[in-house]
Write a structure and sequence with these properties.
The chain has two domains: 3-127, Rossmann fold (3-Layer(aba) Sandwich), CATH 3.40.50; 144-210, Orthogonal Bundle (Arc Repressor Mutant, subunit A). The protein has a six-stranded parallel sheet, with helices on both faces. The chain is globular and about 50 Å long. It is built from ten helices and six strands. The protein is of the alpha/beta class.
């Protein structure tokens, strides 16, 4: 099944270049384009893409706000930021808005394709240099817990599932690794999110880093 992709960038030349790059991929289908945030929201509503490739610098409102609006309307649609901005302010705001990926425009085409595929599978992709910011954020704020053994009441199995989810593994991959069914993995995932009051994969990753379950 092909990944239905919506391209959002205010420069037609950039959209044309992305189309040329991505149309040759067998698992990607570009279903539409948008040059403004309002066009992006309308196109998402009408076309129901699997992934929206979102620029941050749009002429009406920012891609951050567009992401927030789209996720409010269609929470299951993944959004990947493709932007020239690599500073912490935009990075964290985009994640908080609900983005499932963040890739700088200087990245190699393979990185962008990986981000699109990872986001389409329901996971989060962060460009390596930006992933470090996520770790740095917790160290600088002094939010690493001294007591990593309680895990807020999570069972040992839930901790294993949490760590694998945070590392980007799919339900099927976790099921195979832990020798349980994908349905059981989904149940564990739901219980983990509920028990920890988490609402996104990004929050789950942050929790796992803070507890020392994974390292980036």
């Amino acid at each position: 099944m092909k990944i239905r992709l919506l391209l959002v960038d205010d420069h037609a030349v950039v959209r044309s270049g992305l189309r040329m790059l991505l149309e040759g991929e067998e698992d990607v289908q570009i279903v539409g384009e948008a040059g403004t945030a309002s066009e992006a929201v309308n196109a998402t509503t009408n076309l129901k893409p699997d992934v929206v490739l979102m620029d941050i610098g749009l002429p009406d409102i920012s891609g951050i706000e567009a992401t927030r609006k789209i996720k409010a309307l269609w929470p299951n649609i993944a959004i990947v930021a493709l932007t020239i901005h690599e500073d912490e302010e935009y990075f964290f705001k985009m994640l908080e808005a609900g983005a499932s990926g963040y890739v700088p425009k200087r990245a190699a085409p393979e990185e962008l394709l990986t981000a699109i595929r990872v986001a389409a599978s329901g996971d989060v992709y962060l460009y390596p240099s930006l992933a470090k910011l996520l770790v740095k954020d917790y160290f600088t704020q002094g939010q690493l817990d001294d007591d990593n053994k309680t895990f807020d009441g999570l069972t040992e199995r839930q901790q294993e599932v949490l760590a694998l989810l945070a590392e980007g593994a799919t339900n099927a991959e976790i099921a195979e690794k832990l020798h349980i069914s994908p349905k059981t993995v989904a149940s564990h995932r739901e219980n983990i999110m509920q028990k920890l009051s988490l609402h996104s994969r990004t929050e789950l990753v942050k929790y796992a880093i803070r507890k020392g379950l994974i390292q980036l």
